[in-house]
Amino acid sequence: MGLLITGGLYAVLSPASAQTSEADQSTVSQGKALFLVGCASCHGKNGEGIVTKRGTQYGPPLAGVGAAAVDFQVGTGRMPMARPGVQAQRKKVVYTPEEITALAAYVASLGPGPAIPDKSAYDPTGASNADVVRGGQFFKTNCTACHNFAASGGALPGGKFAPSLKGVSDKHIYEAMLTGPQQMPVFSNGVVTPDEKRQIIAYLNSIENDPKYGGASLGALGPVSEGLTAWLVGIGALVGFAVWIASHSVRSKKGVKA
To answer: What is the model's pTM?
Structure first.
């Protein structure tokens, strides 16, 4: 009976496992082919990274970054870069979703790392008002120092910057917290739990959809844009009125004299 049960279970389960393994290997092979063409010049043929004799690093090693890091970097167009720079900027996506999945599978095969999250992990649909408030508290504590109180981004030392979070998909925001791209710190699930990440996303969605009761936000960049507007528009208008009043009074005096 033991042999019959064991043999039966093996016959039922092993074909499915073999097919899954074969499909995974095919995806990894496809991803490796794409990697060698578009990524190996900076990251090395095996994802080991490339450092010149002068110590300049073209691309960091990728073993252990995980599939989520690839999905974020390639899915936002930051990778591949035309040339190494201070910071990779968001641009038009080069690869298709299927190619991004294959690249992520190959990089994930180089070493264990964060996987691409399921939609249930980052989807804030159904979040309560309490969740939004709590997400705002987390955001103001951990994120506003770089991304600004209105998530509009801000300048950082060394020519770098924290990008605006407006218009960024929920999935990519979650992956950024999970992987810590570029100068951003990693907020692992042990530091900020998946529920807390989802609450932060719910808060970001709420402030993006809020009406601007105070009028033009001027980019929500704080005293820089507001001070510049005050000087150019506010004081400029006052100077213009002063010149107009002065010239008008001169014309009046000439008329009285005549």
So the answer is: 0.76
